[in-house]
Amino acid sequence: MSKKIFYQIAKLLGIACLFATFSCRSIPKGASVVSDFDANKYVGTWYEIAQIDFKYERNLNNTAAQYSLKDNGDIKVVNSGYNYVKDKWKKREGNAKFREEKTKGALKVSFFGPFYSGYNIFALDKDYKYALIGGKNYDYLWILSREKTIPNSIKEQYLKIATNIGYDVNDLIWIDHDKENPYVK
């Protein structure tokens, strides 16, 4: 192989590596996650208070997420909600893994086999009652609560944090909780 061809191949591989690095970003640029995370306190049921609409939760309300620790250190995720268009409950199970050390709220979650996406805990109160979660980019944002409501002061605080990160909080859909979710234990 000539040196010219070798250098062209090396250049293409370098470009491909850069593309792969940036296309696999797991957190919006400039955002940071909580650094004193405790998975044992985080597990349990969380109700979605608000979320940016996306394909897998479209037409859902009464949405909740349940997290439980697995023996291997991963976190089992069960998301559920009521599809008000199809008039039926929907449930999806997934798996979350830590992207960094387990004391950081930087995880990745998958509902489709080997394909993972960022799950970033941007804010979490000291009692683990309210959380602000974002995905790999500005298309994914959730406000979660252990109850079906959230105090206005927490709501305003989390909206401010999300705005400062770069999210358009006008895109949030506020979730109704007017039915008992049969998947919530």
UniProtKB/TrEMBL annotation:
Which superkingdom is the protein from? Bacteria
* Annotated ranges, domain Lipocalin/cytosolic fatty-acid binding: 38-175
Alphabetized PROSITE patterns for the sequence: LIPOCALIN, PROKAR_LIPOPROTEIN
Q: Which family does it belong to?
A: Belongs to the calycin superfamily. Lipocalin family.
Entry protein name: Lipocalin family protein
The organism is: Sphingobacterium litopenaei
